[in-house]
Design a protein that fits this description.
Layout (H helix, E strand, L loop, with lengths): L8 E5 L4 H12 L3 E6 L4 H11 L3 E6 L5 H15 L4 E4 L14 H26 L5 E6 L12 H21 L4 E8 L5 H8 L4 H9 L10 H11 L11 E4 L22
Parallel strand pairs: 1-2, 1-4, 2-3, 4-5, 5-6, 6-7
Length: 270
């Protein structure tokens, strides 16, 4: 069976962990040559080595997506190394848990720089490479918070609403160039960022169980679940799909009220 990304080159921001790492691993398994763009100079090279050890092709570029020079240089290095670029996936994100009146202007600007401005830099500097293809793809990772509010994360919620709107604008402005752009919106996903928040609570398992009670599937979404949906939006399996959002949340947004009694916790939290 042919690999769906054979001959394609992909650049994945936030690619060293969480959803980004799952995307990198899946894309490499599907035949893509993958650039891991991340600030994590320890995990990134290890992931590159793991991909190579499994017979895939990958490079790690240390990249802070809030810095335009970093994004430009990472994309240029990717295209030069692999001879082009067809797929851009923006997974890099940060979150602060605090109310709006407690924010400093610096904290607000830093979060927006990573979560939104990084996407702007990626399209600005990837476009000349993407335009060289008959088909190219951009997937930006939003959130269920692209649609609804969430307590104590006002800047994050605002940024994810912006990611969805920006994805729609990119889809409109560059459709004639063969670029399809979509927004993937995860629900409660078992990532290092979620684990960080859970560890800050008195009872991580109880905290997660309370949240998952609102999810009809009764479990956290895995990074691999998200990666498979991003793969769909990054190839011609989704031909004709652009300017839209794909929600992967276990049914969270489907109901105003829900209470699931059959909760499945990750093994190390159960």
């Amino acid at each position: 069976m042919a690999k769906r990304l054979e001959g394609q080159v992909a650049w994945v921001s936030g690619g060293a962990s969480g959803i980004g790492e799952a995307v990198v691993r899946l894309f490499a398994a599907e035949g893509a040559r993958v650039a891991i763009a991340d600030v994590d100079a320890e995990r990134g090279p290890r992931l590159e080595a793991a991909i190579r050890g499994a017979g895939g092709e990958a490079i790690f570029t240390e990249c802070d997506v809030a810095r335009e020079d970093d994004v430009r240089d990472s994309l240029e290095q990717t295209a030069a190394r692999f001879g082009g670029l067809q797929i851009v996936v923006n997974c890099a994100e940060v979150v602060h848990v605090k109310q709006l009146h407690d924010y400093s202007a610096t904290e607000w600007d830093q979060l927006m720089a990573v979560n939104v401005r990084g996407i702007f830099f990626s399209i600005k500097h990837a476009l000349k490479h993407l335009r060289a293809n008959s088909h190219s793809y951009m997937v930006n990772v939003g959130s269920i918070s692209s649609f609804v509010g969430q307590a104590d994360t006002p800047a994050y919620t605002a940024s994810k609403g912006a990611v969805l709107s920006l994805s729609q604008s990119i889809a409109l402005d560059y459709a004639a160039d063969g670029l399809r752009c979509n927004c993937l919106c995860p629900g409660i996903t078992d990532t290092p960022m979620l684990r960080h928040h859970l560890r800050a609570t008195h009872d991580p398992a109880a905290t997660l169980a309370k949240r998952l009670a609102r999810v009809p599937l009764g479990r956290a979404i895995t990074p691999e679940d998200i990666a498979r949906s991003i793969l769909y939006l990054s190839c011609e399996d989704s031909a004709g799909v652009t300017g839209t959002s794909l929600i992967v949340d276990g049914g969270y947004l489907a109901a105003a009220e829900w209470n699931t009694s059959n909760i499945t916790l990750p093994n190390d939290l159960s």
